[in-house]
What we know:
The protein is an alpha/beta fold. It is built from 10 helices and 9 strands. Helices cover 33% and strands 12% of the residues. Helix 2 runs parallel beside helix 3 (110-123) and helix 3 packs across helix 4 (142-156).
Amino acid sequence: xxLRIPEPVSAGIILSYRCSGECRHCMYACSPGxxxxxxxxxxxxxxxxxxxxxxxxxxxxxxxxNYGLHLTGGEPFLNFGLLLRAVRRAAGMGLPSTFVETxxxxxxxxxxxxxxxxxxxEAGLRGLLVSVNPFVVEHVxxxxxxxxVRVGSEVFGENVLVYQPFFxxxxxxxxxxxxxxxxxxxxxxxxxxxxxxxxxxxxxxxYRLEGVLGELYGRRRAEDFFGESCLRELTRPWHxxxxxxxxxxxxxxxxSPWGRRRTWRGSSPGWTWRRxxxxxxx
Length: 282
Ligand code: SF4
């Protein structure tokens, strides 16, 4: 069966699934254990070319989670050279509202942080998204996250998104220094505080947060969902991802990205958009 999907209006490129840490809530189960899975330059070029002229930029020339292009992972700053080249090529093709997402692990001092962000800005990057939640601060000291936000704001002005701000302010009020285990987080704030989070029941969360998710949302059998349709998730045009392995990853479907790479790579058909040329497999 060939699924026809609308053209994307905003998209991310997953440069690698490798990450500096291993969050319990990671929707793509990223970790330091992933092999580099380097995105070939030719594939990167074809991806950017395919997105050219299709993405919608954020109003006022800024950035927004569901606008334009974002570069993500895994952790994009683990391969700064690739990130820089991707930014240059995207800017050269006129792709709008390009920003990069990071867990800030690399923001060990002001100078390095500023230098890298300035290099990226010079290459054409428009902004930065800094991830903050109880799972990231298990392995990234919070002062690095604060540094990313502070220096990022100096370099990109208002074009710095903190995702999710509830936790950023919570940890600032706590005066957090260093890391915080999830067990300690639950002692301090309780599991119901997670209702403020955008918890996505997919990827590693399904295995590593099973107890908490069950407590917050109740437990359901797989059969309870058999009559429901994933069509809207699979065909939504915003915030889709193209990954380093050549897959078109649709919306936040709770099932499709679970498998190991070899099981879900094969399920990537030659996607076709409703208008315009075919989306060829990479
Ligand atoms: S920092 Fe992001 S990519 Fe890395 S493990 Fe956590 S959620 Fe996944």
